[in-house]
């Protein structure tokens, strides 16, 4: 047994429920690996588990994303070995830790050219953008799409990857500073939704045609406006709840706007098998290695200050990626 520091929580609530504690870490069992995390990614989903929006047995650890080094593997584990550099973006929660024992299957090799910080910053949000732009709806060169929260962690990767694919991304943001950042990272148009009418601006930008797909992670506050931006038979991709979950709605909302489609995708479902994770990660590593997508780490906190990271993220005070350093 080794003692290591980790974030645990025994009750749901605000950031104050996060505790920085000592945990005992043992040897990996069959199918498991012990990984020393060198950098840890903070994601909005972590706040959903902390607040109780997504249920979890308590007490529990938190965090689904990190990069580090394999220290030991259990019986039957062959695809990673002690000393390998790895990254991961999956449940179970527990990435907010210096050292952990976890299912080995979810580990992907991190190329030598990618630092631990960059690996931890990009794997969950990068795989998300991979499936959103290439699988949920396969964007085509020349298309104009709408992507909310464009200056966030997922958003800045999406701006750049869309540009690399020849797609005109209309990004929405909540401040002028965020607008400048999204534009700099490749958004063809940016709407600051505090000052501008999103639906009206989308109509203007698209000459009245609207868009074939909306990527909406804002949830409750944006849902109806997102539907209003879709052309007939367009696809609503509702992939997050940053402002709260989307309330129940009538299917007539879809028929009234011209036979819309809607999906509520999760990374878990798209990266369900090792083969899927490895193929998606290879695509992500390629686009980052090509220089077409760079990873913006704009906030770094010590692991002990995870609560401060949550306050900043939920307070809309972050841009790009937030990481924790163990
Ligand atoms: P972000 O860095 O994008 O932070 C969230 C942003 O949402 C804020 O910065 C803010 O930007 C915007 N926002 C709008 N309304 C609110 C509100 N009421 N409270 C807080 N923020 C608000 O976070 P992530 O990149 O980690 O995640 C983005 C979204 O994508 C999240 O909803 C997350 O759950 C979802 N996600 C879903 C995945 C999936 O597979 N389904 C996987 C990964 C992420 P602004 O100030 O510009 O409005």
Automatic annotation (TrEMBL):
<dbReference type="InterPro" id="IPR020843">
    <property type="entry name" value="ER"/>
</dbReference>
<protein>
    <submittedName>
        <fullName>Quinone oxidoreductase</fullName>
    </submittedName>
</protein>
<dbReference type="InterPro" id="IPR011032">
    <property type="entry name" value="GroES-like_sf"/>
</dbReference>
<dbReference type="InterPro" id="IPR002364">
    <property type="entry name" value="Quin_OxRdtase/zeta-crystal_CS"/>
</dbReference>
<dbReference type="InterPro" id="IPR013154">
    <property type="entry name" value="ADH-like_N"/>
</dbReference>
<dbReference type="Pfam" id="PF08240">
    <property type="entry name" value="ADH_N"/>
</dbReference>
<feature type="domain" description="Enoyl reductase (ER)">
    <location>
        <begin position="13"/>
        <end position="324"/>
    </location>
</feature>
<dbReference type="InterPro" id="IPR013149">
    <property type="entry name" value="ADH-like_C"/>
</dbReference>
<keyword id="KW-0521">NADP</keyword>
<keyword id="KW-0560">Oxidoreductase</keyword>
<dbReference type="InterPro" id="IPR036291">
    <property type="entry name" value="NAD(P)-bd_dom_sf"/>
</dbReference>
<dbReference type="Pfam" id="PF00107">
    <property type="entry name" value="ADH_zinc_N"/>
</dbReference>
<dbReference type="InterPro" id="IPR047618">
    <property type="entry name" value="QOR-like"/>
</dbReference>
């Amino acid at each position: 047994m080794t003692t290591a520091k980790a974030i645990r929580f025994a009750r749901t609530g605000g950031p104050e429920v996060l505790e920085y504690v000592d945990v005992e870490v043992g040897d990996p069992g069959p199918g498991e690996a012990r990984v020393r995390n060198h950098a840890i990614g903070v994601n909005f989903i972590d706040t959903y588990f902390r607040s109780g929006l997504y249920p979890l047995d308590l007490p529990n650890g938190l965090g689904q994303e990190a990069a580090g080094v394999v220290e030991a593997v259990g019986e039957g584990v062959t695809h990673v070995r002690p000393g390998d550099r790895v990254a991961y973006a999956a449940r179970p929660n527990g990435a907010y830790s210096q050292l952990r024992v976890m299912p080995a299957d979810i580990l992907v090799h991190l190329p030598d050219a990618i630092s631990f910080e960059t690996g931890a910053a990009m794997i969950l949000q990068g795989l998300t953008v991979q499936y959103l732009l290439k699988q949920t709806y396969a964007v085509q060169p020349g298309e104009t799409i709408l992507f909310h929260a464009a200056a966030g962690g997922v958003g800045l990767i999406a701006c750049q990857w869309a540009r690399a694919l020849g797609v005109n991304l209309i990004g929405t943001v909540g401040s002028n500073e965020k607008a400048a950042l999204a534009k700099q990272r490749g958004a063809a148009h940016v709407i600051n939704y505090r000052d501008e009418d999103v639906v009206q601006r989308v109509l203007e930008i698209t000459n009245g045609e609207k868009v074939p797909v909306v990527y909406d992670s804002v949830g409750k506050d944006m849902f109806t406006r997102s539907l209003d931006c879709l052309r007939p038979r367009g696809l609503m991709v509702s992939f997050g709840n940053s402002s709260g979950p989307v309330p129940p709605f009538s299917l007539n909302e879809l028929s009234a706007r011209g036979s819309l489609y809607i999906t509520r995708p999760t990374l878990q479902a798209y990266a369900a098998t090792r083969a899927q994770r490895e193929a998606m990660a290879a695509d992500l590593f390629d686009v980052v290695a090509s220089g077409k997508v760079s990873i913006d780490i704009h906030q770094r906190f010590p692991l002990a200050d995870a609560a401060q990271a949550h306050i900043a993220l939920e307070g809309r005070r972050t841009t790009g990626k937030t990481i924790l350093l163990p």
